[in-house]
Design a protein that fits this description.
The chain has about 160 residues and is α+β, with helices and mostly antiparallel strands. It contains three helices and ten strands.
């Protein structure tokens, strides 16, 4: 049995996978009660107004400068930064605090980065840019800080 479409949309807004395709290419959906329970555990309410929650999640996503976890494949750190369009010309100071104690610092102007998405939320225009940082990270777990840790993320550098 598949979860109701409204709960599926809410689960996906929280980043959940609600099923998979098996070796026969048949979709296998997660148990609807499990999906609802996980959505509740993440702060959603599958019994409340789903559209209002989706709107709130969208606003929250656009007001979050960087995701809490960034993966740097082969040492290339290219986080997506989301910010109000009015601030794209404002320089950002980005520091990677490597697990070995080394600090890598770069100043970045978001308007110089490729735009990967945009949106208008509650009357504010936002853009998402892909920031290609100019250094190769060593393998391991590092901390990305923006503007002196005003915003931070974990960076997992993998081969």
């Amino acid at each position: 049995m598949e979860a109701p479409q409204a709960i599926v949309r809410l689960a996906q807004a929280f980043g959940l996978q609600v099923g998979y395709f098996d070796f026969n290419h048949s979709f296998r959906g997660a148990d609807p009660e499990v999906v609802a329970a996980v959505v509740r555990a993440l702060g959603g309410d599958p019994d409340a107004d789903v559209d209002a929650q989706l709107h709130a999640r969208e606003i929250e996503r656009w007001r979050t400068l960087v995701d809490p976890v960034v993966v740097a494949w082969d040492g290339a750190c290219t986080p997506v930064l989301r910010l109000p369009a009015a601030l794209v010309d404002r320089p950002l100071s980005i520091t990677i605090r490597c697990e070995d104690g080394e600090n890598l610092v770069h100043e970045l102007v978001p308007s110089a980065c490729p735009v990967v998405d945009d949106a208008v939320c509650d009357g504010t225009s936002f853009v998402a840019v892909r920031a290609a940082l100019p250094f190769v990270l060593p393998l391991g777990y590092h901390r990305l800080e923006i503007d002196g840790a005003r915003t931070a993320a974990m960076v997992m550098s993998a081969p």
